[in-house]
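User: Hi! I'm working on a homework problem where we have to compare a predicted structure to a textbook description. Could you give me the structure for the chain below?
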Amino acid sequence: MKIPPFAKTPSLILALMAAFMPAGGANSIFNVPEGDFADPANWQGGLPSGFALTFIGTSQFGEPPVPAAVANLDTDVTSLATGILLLGQGSLGNGTLNILEGGSLQYGVVWIGRDEGAVGVINQTGGTNRVNTGNFEILSGGASGTYNLSGGVLNTIQAGPIAIKVGAFGAGTGYFNMSGGTFNAGSDPFTQEHSLNVGWAANGEATFSGGTANFTGDLNAGNGANGLVSISGSAEVNARDVNVGLQAGAANSQLSVSGGTLSVANIISVANSSALVISGGSVTATGLVIASGSAVTNSGGVLNIPAITNNGTLSFDLADPLFFGGTLAGSGTYRVEDGTTLALDSGSLWTGGEIFVFTNGLVRFDGGTGTGAASLNAFGGTVDVNGQALAEGSWANLIARTPGAKLANSSAGDASIATGNTLWLYTAPLEIETIGNLQIDSSIISAFAPLPTGITKTGPGTLTLGGANTSTGNTTVAAGALVVSPAGSLTFAIGAEGMNNGVDGSGDFIIDGRFVFDLSGASTNNGDSWTVVAQSLNETIYGANFTVDGFDGAAGTWTRATNGVTYQFEQSTGVLSVSGGAPAGNYANWLTNFPSLTGTNALGSADPDGDGFINDLEYAFDGDPTVGTPALMTVTAVGTNAVFNWIERTNGVIYEVQTSGNLTNGWTGPAAVTISNSTNQSGVLLAPEYVRREFVLPALGKNFYRVRATVLPE
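Assistant: Happy to help. Predicted C-alpha cells:
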C-alpha cells in the first residue's frame, strides 16, 4: 500500500491528545529518573490504563514534569490495554522504555520523540510489544526518535491498513534498528497491509542486521522524505512490495543490501533519483522497475528477479557470474563492469535498453536472445555468442567503442549471427575470436567513416562474413581462417600510393564474395600501387564467385577505367595498380617550364600573370602562367557550323563539356556533343603532354558551352 505522507503539526497532535484525555485531565506521567514500568509508585496519576496518555520523559506535563526518564518493563502489563504512549515530549523531553525479557504490553498509539528538541527511545531486548492503532510513529520532531529491536517480538495488530512511520515530521531523523527478534507488521496481507515507511514526512533511517521482519504491506525507503534502509548480517526481511524513493520528496533515498535476505512478493521499484545497492545477501522479487534518473548496483550477493524494466541505470560488478533467465526491458542502461560476467540464460529475453560491457567484462548468450530494440556497447569488454544461433534482430547494434572490444564464439560448436544485428566499429578495431566456427551475415560498418577501424580475427575456428562490410580498416587474420561468402563483401578505401586498408596476417583467407574499391580519392599517378591482400597470409584462395565491383575480369586480372586512368587488380599478387596515369609530381614537372614562378606564385591557386586564370587552369589548358592568356577556349564560325576547341592534358586532369541555356539555371553535363582531336594541332605549347580537342555544332539558336577541368590529386 503506497500511502502519501500526512504532515502533522504539534498543534494537531495536541488536539488529538486532548480528545483522548479523560474528564478531569487524568494522565500517567513516569515520575522517577529510572524505575520499573509496572510499579504504580513510579507514576503520577497511577498506572496507565484505558485511553490514558502515557508520558515517559516530558518537560511539559506533570507536577512536577520529569523531562528525563527511563522505564524498564520485565512483566506482563498487557491487561492495562493502554491508549497513547509518548516517549520524549516537550522541547526538553527525553524518554526511554526498555522492554526486557518477560515484559509485555499493548498500546494503541506510539509516538517516539514527539516534539521539537525531544528524544525518545524504545530498546526491546525481549518480551512482546503490541501496537493496535493506525499511529505507530518513530518521530523526528527536531531531535530524534529511535526504536532498537534486538530480541523479543514487535507486533502491529490493527485490523486494517496502517502506515508505520520512521521520521514522521520535523527537522530531525527517525531511526529503526533491528539486530534480532521478530517484527510482524500485521499477519494478514489481504486485510491489514501494514507498511513500514522510512522517511515519511521527515528523514528516516532503518537498519536490519538480524532477526526477521515481516511486512504485510510495503517496505518504503523514502515515502515523502529521504529514507535510508540497510539490510545486512543475518536479517530476514519480507515484504509485499518495496519502493525506493516513492514520491518526489523522497529523492536520493537508498536501500542497501550487503547481507541477509530481502524477499519481495511482488515488485521492487526505484524512482526519483534513488538507488538500490546490492553488495551481498540475497534479493528476490517477481520484478524490478528502475525509473529514469535512478540506479541499481549489483556488486555481490544473489539477485533473483525474473523481470527487469530499466529506464535508469543497472550496474553489475560481480566476482562470480550472474546467470539471468528473465526479461530485460526498458530504455535505460545496463552496465557490466570490469571482471563481471552477465550470462543470458535459456529463456531470457532482452527487449530494450543499452548494455555497456567494460574492460574484462563479459556478456554471454547462454540460450537467451534479444529483440533488436537496443545496443550492446563494448568498452573493452567481450560479447560471447557461445555456440548460439542468434536470429535476425537479436540486437540493434553491437558497437566496438574502445580498444580491447571483442566478439567471440567461445564454444567449440558452430555459432551464427543473422542479418539485422549490425556491428559498428568506432575508434578501435574489433577482435573476433573463434574457438568454434562463427558466421556473421550482418554488416560490419565504420561508424565514423572514413576512420580506419577494422577487425582482427583470432582463434582456431573459421570466421565467415556474409554481409556488406563497409569498414575501411585493416582486416587481420591472425589465426584460423577468414571466409567471405558469395553474399559478402569487403571494402577498401584507396588513397595516395600505399595508403589503403587491406587483408593481412598469417591465417587463411578464402574470398568467394566481392571486393569493393573506393577510388574516389585514389592516386592517378602512373605506376602507383597498393597491396590489398598481403603475401604473409598462409593461403589465399579466390572462389568461383569472386568479383570486383565495377571491374572487368579475366584470368585473375581485373581492370577499370576511371579518373582518367586504368586501375588493375591482380589476384596472383593481391596488388592494385595504376596505368596510363600522370607521372608522379606532374604539376611540379610542369612548373619547371616556368622557372620564374617561385614561392606563393607557384601555388595552383595563384594567378601570377593576372589574366584571371589561376595556375591550375593554365596547367589544365596549356596556358602560360607568366604571360596573360586572352582565352582558354575559342569558338570559330566555319560555314553554318560553330567549332569549339581547347587544349587539354593527356593525363592527370578530367574534362567535361557542360551546357547552359541561359546562364541562370546552372550548368549541366556532360553535354551531348562529339569530341575529337583537332586536325589542327598548332599553338600547343607543351606537346606531347597536351593535345588540341574540338567539337562541332550547327550555328542555330542560342546555347552556352564550357569545358570543366578537374585536376586529379598526385
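For your comparison, note the following. Residues 1-25 have pLDDT under 50 and may be disordered. The longest strand covers residues 254-264. Good luck with the assignment!
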